[in-house]
Design goal:
By secondary structure, the protein is mainly beta. Among the domains are: 1-26; 34-238, Sandwich (Immunoglobulin-like). It is 4% helix and 52% strand. It contains three helices and 43 strands. The strands form four sheets. It has a 24-stranded antiparallel barrel. Strands 1, 2, 3, 4, 5, 6, 7, 8, 9, 10, 11, 12, 13 and 14 form a 14-stranded mixed β-sheet that branches. The protein has a two-stranded antiparallel ribbon with strand order 18-29. It is globular, with a radius of gyration of 27 Å. The chain starts with a helix and ends with a strand.
């Protein structure tokens, strides 16, 4: 390039960067000014990772991707081009990703579906078929042809707004070439929900390039937001408005055989032979009816155990497919730690002796959910569970209904009704409605999301009702987030009544008034290996009218994020705890600290995540300092080795060294969980997860072989083994663990997705 041309090029790039910054300064409205047009295909499209059909040559191109990480003010180093077309059944997408690096290597955790994380290669499309910048779908493919899909709620503004567990039927292929790779997708209109008659959707594409630790997007997104944020999506313009795609019914039957042996009770092996099914019926292009009869969730991955040193219940996320689509219509009411609806209250009970979850069988149920029009969403769900003598639970009906109205540009107001009704007066009693055994809730939430995503927040008020008819059965509160490149600020408050009792919800603490504040200042160096760093400050105060202050903590913080994806943060904490109940801080059922005592504690807390692109990487967290009337040292995390692309081996661990003065108990609590995940092909997977927890003297083994013989159709072979353990040290000081079998089971399950 001659000097004169280079100077023109240089000034052009500078002008583009200045213009980009100016456009961001006008609060993101520029996202509306660019579009991609999609035309109906004239010929057939073969999903093979080869761009050889004439329709691709005529399709509009989405290109000039902008960096999202490590910067957001320049064009991506590794550029991407995306083209789209469609026919009566599918949306087709083809993407060409440059790879200019000399190594030209690609990273994936394995060949298992639904990969995630920053240290992977992949291309993802974010679809907003309602053009409301609030709810949408994402579909992604990596260079090895592995799929990922997810549901996005609340505009993708918060980490919890994205679910990657949702499964649906779609098709894709990828192929690696010299200097680039191509991904091709076919997404059935029947697999997504959309509004009939719309001539425009909203859309974005993002790419992760592991070689340069770069993430880039077609529609620019400020780096202080999440990459799936829908506020900045551009328009997808159809050549003609879309109509309903005809009958859309899917039936997913399953059959299961298995056996379980309970060694503790010494009973004969309990054999299982079950059948059941799920069904999906499209009432309209935007509203779906889900049905389930005798569902079984034995193939769902076992929960990761935790060392429990908390005075309150521990939250475990939902993983069952039936409860996931449009889950935000039910599960997003309230705030973290005060949720009026928690789907794991239905069909799941926890064995506190082993730390394992047990199924409470479900007779059946339905869920109707989706869009009524562009402003209204609705959901209603009804589930009937079976009586369970093992945990003394009668047959119970769970009814949940919600209604949501869009207001302003991206905000909404929602209402929820929950009714839990016992259908038996006692175990083995007559199957009839019991008017004296019910629990109900009414609630209203306002969810704020500004057009430029700088402001996000929530206000809520809920009230529970039951046969006791007590006072103080309310919960209310909310939060407000302010996020710019420089500042991140959150103000949070809630008030939970002493008798607030949503039995189908998750409430960690009652009878509290709480206020919390967090503030970060972000610095972005112009050179060097650090992407961003900066100080932070936060505090959290809880109390009530009976005891006054219950807990508070104040933190001085600092965090650093590197351009290679590694990051760390550290905080100096001063905290206060008042015990309103007796409590054993050792977690070993030792002598308890008396109620009415209080404790000041100085603690250092930190965590470190290494470069996620490496074959071997670690995630570590820990704390050291005062702990009630003693001291505690904790280190926990995971270490992972990847054998790309065939799988990985990881070790999850947690160690707590607790030292308390006499007569209270010291403790050395160890939780260790090795995992092996092998993916022989994109359809054949084997996982073994072992968890040893000396706090509850338990060893658990879960092995699962999965063959996806057709899209979303599987054969599972699941083996579980549970042991009561004891530890001892021999004369040479060597540590040993001995186990006696407690519970052992094998399940073979076959499910098949059938479109009618």
């Amino acid at each position: 390039m001659c000097p004169a041309n280079f100077e023109v090029y240089h000034h052009t790039i500078v002008a583009i960067r200045i213009l980009f910054v100016i456009l961001l300064a006008v609060q993101g409205y520029s996202a509306l000014t660019q579009q991609i047009f999609i035309k109906k295909a004239k010929g057939s499209i073969e999903i093979d990772g080869v761009m050889d059909e004439p329709d691709w040559l005529e399709a509009a191109v989405a290109n000039k991707f902008m960096q999202f990480f490590p910067s957001d003010t320049s064009l991506a180093v590794s550029q991407t081009e995306v083209r789209m077309t469609y026919d009566d059944r599918f949306i087709y997408i083809i993407a060409r990703m440059e790879n200019l690096a000399t190594s030209r290597q690609y990273i994936t955790p394995s060949l298992r579906r639904d990969f995630r994380g920053e240290g992977n290669d992949g291309i993802t499309v974010v679809l907003d078929p309602f053009s409301d910048r609030t709810n949408g779908f994402m579909f992604g493919v990596n260079p090895f042809g592995v799929q990922r899909e997810g549901l996005i709620a609340n505009g993708g503004s918060r980490p919890t707004d994205l679910s990657l567990i949702w499964d649906n039927k779609w098709y894709s292929e990828a192929k690696i070439y010299d200097g680039y790779w191509i991904a091709e997708m076919a997404i059935p209109f029947k697999s997504i929900r959309f509004k009939e008659g719309l001539s425009t959707w909203n859309i974005n594409f993002y790419r992760i390039d592991s070689e340069h630790a770069e993430r880039s997007t077609w529609s620019p997104i400020p780096r202080n937001f999440d990459i799936v944020t829908m506020a900045f999506n551009r328009q997808l313009v159809w050549d003609e408005p879309l109509t309903k795609t005809g009958t859309n019914i899917s039936v997913i039957p399953y059959t299961l055989i298995g056996g379980t042996k309970n060694f503790t009770e010494g009973t004969p092996t309990d054999t299982q032979q079950e059948i059941g099914f799920d069904a999906k019926v499209a009432i309209s292009s935007a509203m779906n009816l889900d049905l389930t009869v005798n569902p079984d969730f034995s193939q769902v991955e076992v929960d990761a155990q935790v060392t429990n040193l908390d005075r309150f219940e521990i939250f475990f996320p939902e993983q069952r497919q039936f409860f996931l689509e449009n889950a935000d219509l039910f599960a997003d009411f309230g705030v973290e730690g005060t949720r009026p609806f928690f789907s794991r209250r239905i069909g799941v009970v926890r064995d506190e002796a082993t730390g394992q979850n047990l199924q409470n069988p479900i007779y059946g149920g339905f869920r109707l959910s989706g869009k009524i029009d562009n402003n209204w969403r609705a959901g209603i769900m009804d589930i009937q569970t079976v009586e369970d003598n093992q945990v003394n639970v009668p047959s119970t009906n769970f009814l949940v209904a919600s209604l949501q109205r869009k207001v302003f540009t991206r905000s909404n107001i929602g209402m929820i009704l929950i009714n839990k009704q016992a259908f038996q007066d006692s175990i083995n009693g007559e199957f009839t409605t019991s008017p004296k055994k019910y629990n109900r809730l009414l609630g209203i939430d306002y969810n704020l999301a500004s057009k430029n995503n700088v402001w996000n927040g929530k206000l809520f008020y809920h009230r529970s009702f039951d046969q006791n008819k007590l006072d103080s059965t309310f919960a209310y509160g909310g939060f407000i987030n302010y996020s710019t490149l420089t500042w991140s600020i959150n103000l949070f408050t809630r008030n939970v009544g002493a008798n607030y009792n949503p039995e189908v919800g998750f409430v960690r603490r009652k009878d509290i008034q709480q206020v919390a504040y967090t503030q970060w200042y972000n610095i972005y160096p112009k050179s060097g290996g650090i992407q961003s760093h900066g100080p932070g400050f936060d505090f959290d105060i809880l109390g009530n009218q009976v005891y006054g202050l219950l807990d508070w903590d104040v933190n001085l913080m600092y965090r650093v994020r590197y351009k290679n994806t590694a990051n760390w943060n550290i905080r100096l904490r001063r905290e206060y705890t008042y015990l309103f109940n007796d409590f054993d801080p050792s977690g070993t059922n030792g002598i308890k600290l008396p109620a009415g005592t209080d404790y000041y504690q100085d603690v250092i807390v930190g965590n470190f995540n290494s470069d996620a692109r490496k074959v071997f990487f670690t995630n570590l967290s820990g704390r050291v300092g005062e702990y009630f009337n003693g001291h505690r040292f904790n280190i926990s995390g995971s270490a992972t080795y990847r054998y790309i692309p065939w799988g990985f081996a990881s070790l999850n661990f947690s160690y707590n060294r607790i030292r308390l003065p006499e007569p209270y108990s010291d403790a050395d609590l160890l939780l260790i969980g090795p995992r092996i995940d092998l993916t022989f092909t994109r359809s054949l997977f084997f996982t073994t997860f072992i968890q040893y927890n000396n706090q509850i003297n338990n060893l658990n083994i879960n092995s699962r072989l999965q063959w996806r013989f057709k899209p979303v159709s599987d054969i599972f072979l699941v083996y579980t083994d549970n042991y009561v353990t004891e530890t001892f040290t021999d004369t040479d000081g060597r540590y040993f663990v001995k186990g006696d079998p407690r519970l052992r089971g094998v399940v073979l399950k076959i499910s098949y997705w059938l479109n009618i």
